[in-house]
Amino acid sequence: MKEGQKLWTRNQLILAINLYCKLPFGRLHRSNPEVIHLANLIGRTPSSIAYKLVNFASLDPSLKARGIKGAANASKLDKIIWEEYYQNWDDLPFESEKLRAKIENQSIESLNNIPSTELPKEGKTREAIVKVRVNQSFFRSSILASYNNTCCITGITQPELLIAGHIKSWSEDEKNRLNPRNGIAINALHDKAFENGLITITPDFKIKISERLLKNKNTKSIEEYFLKYDNKDIILPSKFLPDEEFLKYHNEYRFLR
Fold it and tell me: Domain locations in the chain?
């Protein structure tokens, strides 16, 4: 370590991973206002934050699989905290949001734009609802950032029309509810079709349309909104590629042939 440099703490690294999840790959740089803001909050330079984000990119298995490299000198602690976070999606994202709320001097509800009028006044029910809402917000931010706010099927880029869809549903895999590799950015219509098995995405990232829709090939709307995408490649995310095992599951158990 160079003279004058400060060691990173566990909490600072968790906050940096939180930001890594929420930023598109192309925005992991020192001039990004969100990088500058985190730097100010934890007393570091924007360059050091950006460098740490690129260190995390070097540890991201979905980027490695595509031959994309980050910085080559991630520290031992970087690797430990990354692995702790990456293997614990059911807890650490929420912990990171609590840490962020604390350094922002905000409640976790206000940080995540959860109106108090929509919550019970107190108690375990309120805590449970807040955690679910915060986790949903984190998952959506991570997925839309990974896909650069672009529907993986149609290329639609209007955020209001996009959903962070689960490959294995919320109810089927509690451990991976917040895992960005269990998510896709998709428009509302195709999300409904995906959820109901009318379309799927193969492990090699191709769109497949169910026979239940293919047999309606003479229906103009079905042709326009579904059939023309059959066997097309999805638009891949810049990070957090969909996990092949999750896609296999959807193909085998959810897709209607």
Answer: 10-144, 148-254
Q: What is the pLDDT of residues 93-149, one digit of tens each?
A: 999 999 999 999 999 999 999 998 888 887 888 889 999 999 999 999 999 999 999
Please tell me the pTM assigned to this model: 0.92
The CA distance from 97 to 137, in Å, is: 10
What does the chain come to in residues?
257
How many CA atoms are closer than 13 Å to the CA of 128, on its beta-carbon side? Answer: 3
Across the chain, which distance is largest between two alpha carbons, in Å?
71
Beta bridge partners of 209: 199
Burial label for 224, CB within 10 Å (0-12, 13-18, 19+), is exposed
